[in-house]
Write a structure and sequence with these properties.
Blueprint (H helix, E strand, L loop, with lengths): L2 H13 L3 H18 L7 E3 L11 H4 L8 E9 L4 E6 L6 E3 L5 E3 L4 E2 L6 E5 L2 E2 L5 E2 L5 H5 L2 H4 L6 E5 L20 E3 L4 E3 L4
Parallel strand pairs: 1-2, 1-7, 7-10, 10-11
Antiparallel strand pairs: 2-3, 3-6, 4-5, 8-9, 11-12
Organism: uncultured Pseudomonadales bacterium HF0010_05E14
Protein name: 5-formyltetrahydrofolate cyclo-ligase
Family: Belongs to the 5-formyltetrahydrofolate cyclo-ligase family.
């Protein structure tokens, strides 16, 4: 599989969804995630701000089930090391665009990634083995690489994607961090860990 070609095709497919279809599917994804119960004990959840036609996770943070949770959004921590830090999300805060055109909060309260209970990943593509295609920067893989080395890590890695983004047999390179769960508008997928 040519990852770059597949990424381009899947991004185009995702962008062809109408805004109404994207919103409707994002709402269904939020409902599927909530009804799964996997976040019921979560207090600190890393999410993201929708960009480039991605699933909009805002509906998850607005769900009453998560009123006692804190949500954090990614900020580029070190461009050279390709890592992220996470700042508390507040819908009233000021944002600025980073070098990729993605909004980041200005002067947010930061959380240590060790305190996160779950991470919601934006997806370009995914397969049923938990492999994913992101935007290609490797920021999430590098930031959360510690998960692969800790046997009893509690951090839940959850991908949010539209069903049209599913593809088969994405190659898993040594640095790729597989997902434990994938949520689409059609289903909640629990990936069997190998």
């Amino acid at each position: 599989m040519n990852i770059e070609k597949t990424r381009k095709e899947l991004r185009l497919r995702r962008k062809q969804l109408t805004s109404d279809d994207r919103e409707s599917a994002s709402l269904k994804i939020a409902k599927n995630l909530v009804s799964s119960g996997i976040l019921s004990d979560s207090k600190n959840i890393a999410t993201y701000l929708q960009n480039d036609g991605e699933v909009d996770p805002i509906y998850i943070s607005k769900d009453y089930v998560f009123k006692s949770c804190k949500f954090y959004i990614p900020i580029i921590n070190d461009q050279n090391k390709r890592t992220l830090k996470f700042g508390e999300y507040d819908q009233n805060q000021q944002f600025e665009k980073n070098k990729y055109g993605i909004n980041e909060p200005i002067n947010p309260s930061l959380v240590s990634i060790d305190l996160l209970d779950a991470v919601l990943f934006p997806l370009v593509g995914f397969d049923r083995n938990g492999n994913r295609i992101g935007m290609g920067g490797g920021f999430y893989d590098k930031t959360f690489e510690f998960v692969a080395t800790k046997k009893k890590n509690k951090l839940k890695l959850i991908g949010l994607g539209f069903s049209i983004q599913e593809t088969s047999n994405i190659p898993n390179r040594a640095w790729d961090l597989p997902l434990q769960y994938i949520v689409t508008e059609k289903e909640f997928i629990c990936v069997e860990q190998k």
